Amino acid sequence: MSKAVTETNLPGINLIHRGKVRDTYDLGDSLLMVATDRISAFDWVLPTPIPDKGKVLSQISVFWFEKLADIVPNHFITDDINNYSHLLPYSDVLRGRSMIVKKANRIDYECVVRGYITGSGWAEYKKQGTVAGKPMPEGLRDGDKLPEPIFTPARKNEEGHDENITYEILESEVGSDLASQLRDISIQLYQDGRDYAETRGVIIADTKFEFGFVDGQLTLIDELLTPDSSRFWLESEYRPGESLPSLDKQYVRDWLTQSGWDKNSQPPELPDEVVEATRQRYLEAYRMLTGKELEL
Predict the structure, then answer these.
(1) Which of 108, 129, 191, 212 has a beta carbon 3.0–4.6 Å from 104's, enabling a disulfide?
(2) How far is it, in rounded angstroms, from Cα 18 to Cα 40?
(3) CA gap 99, 35 in Å, rounded
(4) Coil vs helix vs strand at 194
(5) Domains contained in the chain, CATH given
(6) Among 111, 156, 158, 157, which residue's Cα sits nearest to residue 132?
């Protein structure tokens, strides 16, 4: 197992943002995005990292950026360390967990697509029979496939939770043309990703996308169909209403919930067995989707 990378320090390279998981550096005409092994849950960065998690996030995003590039342009330029020129002194920390990407003017909304009912969608459905305010068929169980994927946008806030909004609110804030583009492209990305994943024995229950503008062109940015941005289930063990075995960080969320943590104070350290079980889920997601072992 590799030593966990919790943050990066690249002297002489301009760090412009340290997010919950990624460190982003300004390279002048492009950005360097480095996926660390930090893990977040319930809007907290946990004190315990998951070794190799950042490599999974980076390499699985590259896999999808290349596979789904015909749907919409994306910001990916390269993840080949040999193309990094002046960054080569930092190749040991960057290899496998970084990519150079185009600069984009970010659209401050998350484009969430749900193909199955679970999580916050399930909680809303139990209360009022809707998901994101849309009426759903009666009798659904936790984990059931929805009749059609639904687009449920969220406004990105600099502090605290992202805020779920209706499509109509998105339309009023960004205009009907851009709103419909975001919706249609997000659903197409989800459907093509979901259909491919099913051939590999993985169910993508839901996911989120982010977009920006590069030279005036709508462009997919950030990460793509990773175990951090999506909910992955094993098709072989999928039992709606009973068991939803995940290949994502739901395992950590479940442990935190069961630990008695109040979600309002500093999170507890994760036990070694939870760290390793989570690490294995991330590695298995990569293995199943790409058909390859992750290069560690």
Answers:
(1) 212
(2) 13
(3) 9
(4) helix
(5) 14-103 (3.30.200.20), 106-258 (3.30.470.20)
(6) 111
